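Sanity check. The docking grid for nicotinamide-adenine-dinucleotide depends on where the pocket ends up, so I'm generating a full predicted complex first rather than guessing from homology. Inputs follow.
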Amino acid sequence: MRAKMGLDELKNMFDLTGKVAVVTGGSGGAGKAISIGLALYGADVVCTSRTLSTLEDTAAEVEKLGKKALPVSCDVTDPQSVDSMMKKTIDEFGKVDILITAAGIALRTEAENMPIEDFRKVMAANVDGTLLCCQAAAKEMIKQGDGGKIVTVGSIRGLHGHPAGYSAYATSKGAVHIMTKQIAIEWAKHNIRVNCIAPCIFWTPLTEPILKDEEMYKIFMQRIPIGRPAEPEDLLGAVVYLASEASAMVTGHVLYVDGGTSAW
Ligand SMILES: NC(=O)c1ccc[n+]([C@@H]2O[C@H](COP(=O)([O-])OP(=O)(O)OC[C@H]3O[C@@H](n4cnc5c(N)ncnc54)[C@H](O)[C@@H]3O)[C@@H](O)[C@H]2O)c1
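Predicted complex below; grid placement will be based on this.
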């Protein structure tokens, strides 16, 4: 049974001091903001992406906050690469407490013409990649014996269809949502809490062309009651909550960070 928290623990329940967090996609819009956010709340951060040099900025920002950063190159679709990334994490820090799976891709084409190669690429990065990283982290967390926190990254597209060619992406994110629930149930006995954040569209260099297209912007904004795209920083509250003891009783949940889209 979990001991009751004292007032100090309650006040500090979002504190991540002493925790080691692995963030995949650490050079991307979300991954970079999340790495910095976790460091701001006290975690050391292993930030990963395929190309090591793209992680320099993220690692430097984490270190500016007085936390340790370990940039590691890792292709999340490759089991050996994921295992090697996790081994480097354990060699450096001796443990992993938090995993955030922010690596992902989107390839959009109208459904009738979606090339099966593109469909498979999206599924490999978003679905295989999520599973492989969760497996690698969970194996360590099970060995460590004191639980852990996993936050997967889904999308509002995992819940609602959209006219802009998302047959591969939406399918992959729907899979991430249900995978989160499934592994949360299986790993609850190890005190590993697994939850998902599911954002609406947010500003990154990759979504800029969509959001700067007036017609597209209108189509997207019609679906977001709050009336604006998210910023990567809008994800932080949800991620820190799900990565910390503040969410100790929450597992298998998909938390929409979507300006109200899912309530529509
Ligand atoms: N940007 C949005 O509007 C939006 C909305 C909802 C959900 N998401 C999801 O958020 C996550 C992050 O998206 P983002 O907007 O920051 O994208 P991004 O393109 O800025 O970043 C994606 C990151 O994933 C990495 N990556 C891609 N394939 C990889 C692979 N095989 N191995 C390792 N790393 C790989 C890239 O190198 C990059 O660091 C993705 O899962 C995306 O689907 C994004």
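Relevant for the grid: The mean pLDDT is 96.
Also worth noting: The radius of gyration is 18 Å.
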